[in-house]
């Protein structure tokens, strides 16, 4: 009689047990469920009791206020807004303002940060000292102080609207902001936009083709004259056929202020300036650390290949440094976004100012509004960090690391 | 700088307080569990909200919410002592409770944080030029106790602009403090008159005035009394003028938490006592003489006949205590904001009802 081997335990069940309970097995799984249930219960109790207490104290609660009329004005809204809109609309106006100042701030902070960081490593003594001085000065002063400095300095330096500084009769600089002509689309706008899009796509295709040729057959094709011709020629052609794509609406002094045109308010300028210069100081140090983490043999290798210093940095050193730079750079982007809530000090209508400020004090619903605001900042931060992680993953992949 | 940080800190404290308030209820409701008991022990410092008078007496101090510095209403004087119209209301309450007007802890609050501070129990009474509106009365968990000052919203402009009426303000930039009724009134006014405007809202009164002074705005709008007070802070007060239009009703008065009727009565009648005292001719100087009077009305007021003060939870001589500490309503008005002060605001609506104003208090009997 043959001895039958004992059937092996089911692979599926073992795997499930491992996944759910880890090393502790089913017991661990049960514990986890209990823990989550306890957390959920505590969460529920906090919410339920807060509600009961607020009701007992006759303090309004719930999210019904979001559909009430706001009844106050906002100085900058990139989406249509009037006083008779709801608090929900106010929320979005504030959110857009926060996003705009963050994105533009991040752009300039990165630009200045990289320039200063690389400048600090420059062999040019003066440049390196100036960059070093910038970093030490800016990062050691409180941000709020810098915001107020830019705001009050900008305002104090500028004349009132009636004596505004005019450039070409169409740009106006005063203490009410920077008035610029506003482009208004006409009939020719659509063909023009299509022509630009076609030119860009064409240029990209041409670039891809040139690269393939370079890598496959070693042939270097000069494409920039064609690209330039296409980028300028096609839109020009569209303009000639269909007429001017846009006309400009110029700012005009009417009463106390400029009407017509677009206006960049001083609060926005001051906040963007302060946020980007402040964060740039930190980014500069991160960039310096990143570049110095790349072995100096790489720089020498570049030089021995006959590359200029700039090209060596751009093509060899910075891509390798990016692996070190990215995680702390993400931190700085998140800091900048969160620091934008200091806008309330200078009356820039960001999310914190119009929603967690004005809306909160008008409705008195602190718990709901603070919860929403915290949630929004969390989401913005998580999205920023996800984008940066994705970018880091791509760099890591392209370098085979 | 310090003020900004203080403001942020107080906002955070308010948030934490609010969180604590909700936790407290949590603890009281489910006190059977051990860990909630621990929480309750940690939070027992905040006694039940329905016994404000007892809390105040146990603490030995009245905690009074005031502005962050509004000359004439609540601002520290050159010796660092708080003084002003709203401060005198705090002092009067402290005098009624403790017979000592100095037993007050002043908590400076921005317009935005003031209600949260009251809700959370950080202060016992808010005496901070706050406008009485229906929505505030019903949805913030607070009760207004009366009208200490009849005010209205106006506009402050540079005289060099040569503007004579608010109706000439089309397209102006307007500076306003956020979290006020002013912010909504100005929107209503400009919309109602088909005028365009740009509003820039700041967190504190100081920031608002600074922006106005730097030329960011053509107009600074606030309650008229505040315009006169803030004007004193400008470099050249005489270069700025208040426009004649008053665009809203701003009845200002002290407020307390909802749900403690006894405390509401005390604050309410402290104010009424001051108004009644002016009507009866009782002043800080003659209060001792008047207390000896045989007139039945005065005997009731001074507690030599009956025990009206005790029914409030105070003592029989509560009115005498208040008047000795602060003087009557008219004296308080004149000393802080009226003819006897730098502000020089006319009594106007705040004159007694029998002298052409509308300030009127129910009788003490």
User: Strand order, biggest sheet of chain A?
Assistant: 1-2-3-8
Tell me what the CATH architecture of the largest domain in chain B is: 3-Layer(aba) Sandwich
CATH class category of one domain in chain A:
Mainly Alpha
Give the strand order, joined by hyphens, for the main sheet of chain B: 10-9-11-8-12
Strand-residue fraction of chain B?
5-15%
Greatest interface and its residue counts? A-B, 53 and 59 residues
Percent in helix of chain B: 40-55%
What is the radius of gyration of chain B computed over CA atoms, rounded to a whole number of angstroms?
A: 22 Å
Oligomer status: heterodimer
Largest sheet of chain A: 4 strands, antiparallel
Question: What is the count of distinct domains of chain B?
Answer: 3
* The level-1 CATH class of the largest domain in chain B: Alpha Beta
* CATH-assigned fold name of one domain in chain A: MetI-like fold
Mean pLDDT of chain B: 86
What shape does the CA trace of chain B take? globular
Return residue spans of chain A where pLDDT drops below 50 for at least 5 consecutive residues.
Answer: none
Question: What is the tally of helical segments of chain B?
Answer: 15
CATH homologous superfamily grouping of one domain in chain A: MetI-like
Tell the overall outline of chain A. Answer: globular
Major β-sheet profile of chain B: 5 strands, mixed
User: Helicity level of chain A, as a percent range?
Assistant: 55-70%
List the helices and strands and how they pair.
The complex is a heterodimer of chains A (401) and B (365).
Chain A: H1 11-21, H2 25-56, H3 87-120, H4 125-139, H5 143-157, E1 165-167, E2 171-174, E3 177-180, E4 182-185, H6 189-217, H7 224-242, E5 246-249, E6 252-254, E7 257-259, E8 262-264, H8 266-293, H9 296-304, H10 309-339, H11 351-363, H12 366-398
Antiparallel strand pairs in A: 1-2, 2-3, 3-8, 4-5, 6-7
Helix pairs in contact in A: 1-2, 3-4, 3-8, 3-11, 4-8, 5-8, 6-7, 8-10, 9-10, 10-12, 11-12
Chain B: H1 2-29, H2 34-43, H3 52-59, E1 62-66, E2 75-76, E3 82-83, H4 85-98, E4 104-108, H5 114-119, E5 125-126, H6 134-139, E6 142-144, E7 149-151, E8 153-158, E9 172-177, H7 181-192, E10 197-202, H8 205-213, E11 219-223, H9 224-231, E12 240-242, E13 250-252, E14 255-257, H10 261-280, H11 287-291, H12 296-302, H13 308-312, H14 318-326, H15 329-336
Parallel strand pairs in B: 1-4, 1-5, 9-10, 9-11
Antiparallel strand pairs in B: 2-3, 6-14, 7-13, 8-11, 8-12
Helix pairs in contact in B: 1-2, 4-10, 4-14
């Amino acid at each position: 009689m043959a001895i039958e081997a004992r059937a092996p335990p089911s692979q599926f069940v073992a795997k499930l047990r491992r996944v759910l309970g880890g090393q502790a097995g089913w017991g661990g799984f049960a514990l986890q469920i209990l823990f989550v249930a306890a957390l959920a219960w505590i969460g529920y109790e906090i919410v339920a009791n807060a509600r009961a207490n607020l009701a007992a104290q006759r303090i309004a609660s719930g999210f019904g206020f979001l559909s009430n009329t706001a009844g106050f004005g906002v100085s900058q809204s990139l989406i249509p807004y009037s006083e008779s809109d709801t608090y929900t609309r106010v929320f979005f106006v504030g959110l857009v303002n926060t996003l705009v100042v963050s994105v533009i701030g991040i752009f300039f902070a990165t630009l200045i940060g990289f320039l200063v960081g690389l400048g600090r490593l420059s062999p040019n003594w003066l440049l390196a000292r100036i960059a070093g001085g910038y970093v030490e000065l800016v990062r050691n002063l409180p941000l709020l102080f810098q915001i107020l400095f830019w705001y009050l300095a900008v305002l104090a330096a500028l004349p009132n609207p009636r004596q505004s500084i005019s450039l070409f009769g169409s740009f106006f600089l005063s203490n009410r902001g920077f008035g610029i002509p506003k482009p208004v689309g006409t009939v020719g706008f659509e063909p023009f936009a299509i022509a630009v899009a076609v030119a860009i796509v064409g240029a990209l295709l041409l670039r891809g083709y040139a690269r393939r040729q370079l890598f496959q057959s070693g042939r270097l094709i000069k494409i920039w004259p064609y690209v330039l011709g296409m980028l300028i020629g096609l839109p020009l052609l569209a303009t000639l056929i269909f007429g001017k794509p846009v006309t400009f609406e110029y700012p005009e002094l009417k009463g106390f202020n400029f009407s017509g045109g677009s206006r960049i308010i001083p609060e926005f300028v001051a906040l963007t300036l302060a946020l980007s210069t402040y964060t740039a100081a930190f980014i500069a140090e991160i960039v310096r650390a990143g570049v110095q983490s790349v072995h100096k043999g790489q720089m020498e290798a570049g030089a021995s290949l006959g590359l200029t210093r700039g090209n060596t940095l751009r093509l060899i050193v910075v891509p390798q440094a990016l692996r070190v730079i990215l995680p702390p750079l993400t931190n700085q982007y998140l800091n900048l976004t969160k620091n934008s809530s200091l806008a309330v000090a200078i009356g820039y209508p960001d999310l914190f100012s119009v929603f967690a400020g004005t809306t909160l004090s008008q409705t008195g619903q602190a718990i709901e509004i603070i919860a929403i605001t915290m949630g929004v900042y969390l989401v913005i931060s998580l999205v920023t960090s996800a984008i940066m992680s994705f970018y880091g993953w791509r760099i890591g992949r392209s370098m085979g690391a | 700088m310090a003020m900004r940080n203080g403001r942020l800190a107080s906002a955070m404290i308010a948030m934490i307080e609010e969180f604590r308030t909700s936790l407290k209820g949590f603890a009281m409701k489910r006190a059977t569990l051990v860990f909630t008991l621990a929480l309750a022990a940690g939070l027992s410092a905040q006694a039940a909200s329905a016994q404000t008078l007892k809390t105040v007496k146990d603490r030995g101090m009245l905690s009074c919410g005031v502005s962050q510095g509004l000359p004439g209403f609540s601002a520290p004087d050159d010796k660092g002592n708080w003084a002003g119209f709203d401060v005198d209301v705090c002092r009067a309450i402290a005098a009624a409770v403790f017979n000592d007007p100095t037993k007050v802890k002043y908590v400076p609050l921005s317009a935005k944080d003031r209600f949260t501070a009251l809700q959370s129990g950080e202060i016992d009474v808010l005496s901070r030029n706050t406008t009485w509106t229906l929505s505030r009365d019903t949805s913030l968990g607070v009760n207004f106790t009366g009208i200490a000052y009849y005010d209205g919203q106006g506009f402050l402009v540079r005289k060099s602009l040569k503007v004579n009426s608010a109706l000439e303000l089309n397209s102006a930039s307007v500076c306003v403090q956020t979290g006020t009724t002013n912010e909504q009134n100005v929107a209503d006014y400009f919309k109602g008159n088909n005028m365009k405007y740009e509003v820039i809202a700041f967190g504190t009164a100081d920031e608002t005035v600074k922006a106005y002074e730097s030329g960011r705005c053509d107009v600074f709008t606030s309650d008229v009394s505040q315009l006169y007070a803030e004007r004193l802070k400008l470099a050249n007060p005489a270069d700025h003028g208040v426009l004649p239009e008053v665009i809203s009703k701003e009845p200002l008065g002290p407020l307390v938490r909802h749900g403690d009727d006894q405390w509401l009565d005390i604050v309410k009648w402290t104010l009424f006592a001051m108004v009644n005292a002016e009507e009866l001719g009782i002043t800080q100087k003659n209060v001792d003489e008047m207390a000896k009077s045989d007139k039945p009305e005065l005997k009731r007021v001074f507690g030599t006949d009956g025990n009206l003060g005790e029914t409030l939870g105070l003592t029989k001589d509560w009115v005498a205590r208040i008047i000795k500490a602060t003087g009557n309503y008219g004296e308080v008005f004149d000393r802080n904001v009226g003819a006897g002060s730098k502000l020089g605001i006319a009594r106007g609506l705040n004159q007694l009802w029998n002298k052409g104003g509308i300030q009127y208090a129910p009788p003490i009997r």
